[in-house]
Amino acid sequence: MHADFLHRDPPRLDAADRAACRSWIAHHSKSFYLSSLLLPARVREASWALYAFCRRADDAVDEGDGDGMRRVDALRARLDAVYRGSAPESAIDRAYLTVATNYGIPRALPEALLEGMEMDARGHVYATWDDLLRYCFRVASTVGLMMTRVMGYRGDVALLRAADLGVAMQLTNIARDVGEDERRGRVYLPAELLERCHGDRREAVAELLRRADAHYRAADLGVPLLPRACRLAIASSRRIYAAIGDAVRENGYDSITQRAYVPLGGKLLLVARSIGAALGPSLPIPSLASVGPEDDALRREIAACGL
Fold first, then answer.
1. Neighbours of 180 (CB within 10 A)
2. Same structural domain for residues 302 and 161?
3. If you ran DSSP here, which 8-state letter would residue 223 be given?
4. pLDDT tops 90 at residue 203
5. Contacts (Cβ under 8 Å, ≥6 apart) of 286
6. Domain carrying residue 71
7. 1, part of any domain
């Protein structure tokens, strides 16, 4: 598939629904909210709806009482209602319906996201890197692929690099939250990795971050392919998330007893450092020869979502 920018200006979200999404994101996802403010208004508003819908679903599975699979089934029922075109009662669901309609977001993307949440609900055990990669794609790369559609880009290379960014961010999350996840009865560190590290979780966290860095480097190649007005937000988001990994390193890879974070001042500095990526020249579409660490696997996952 070749590059395909959309230049139409779709209808805006209902003002009340838009405000509800913005408020939810500002409270629950501060790093993303900061980066989103750098997007053009049309993309920014749609991104609030996407992230609020996806993040709220994730929180419902993580934090609700009772059976996790029951909550996943309830989310699937809500998603079914959205794609039937029913008028949802929830402002966030209504906003997502508007965005999905405006930008042609295929149902397979949020379905894949729910498959990742089902892995959490069932207490999935990760034996290999491939297992963990599939999980990261489902819970994070799918959201990045939705964002590429909102930004108006359909190129194969941009989709791969968006998937890389999602994987990198999710690996960073996992590296940061090892202790917190274990206290909730979840282990994302693959068994083969723990075996290779002789059970040393700090060494395993270091390897997770090395993998994340490889995906961040691949994702950087996609930024100059995006609409110029969107680049600063994406480059800033990438730098802020990567800085979380740097904070984990500064803590001696101890994410059992410490939680790494990036203070607001640090985030603002990273935004300033991202300006060069936003102002750089647009690049020609590069060859589809593998440049990412796991391009073949990511192509298969993207194709399974009908993209």
1. 12
2. yes
3. G
4. yes
5. 157, 221
6. 10-121
7. no
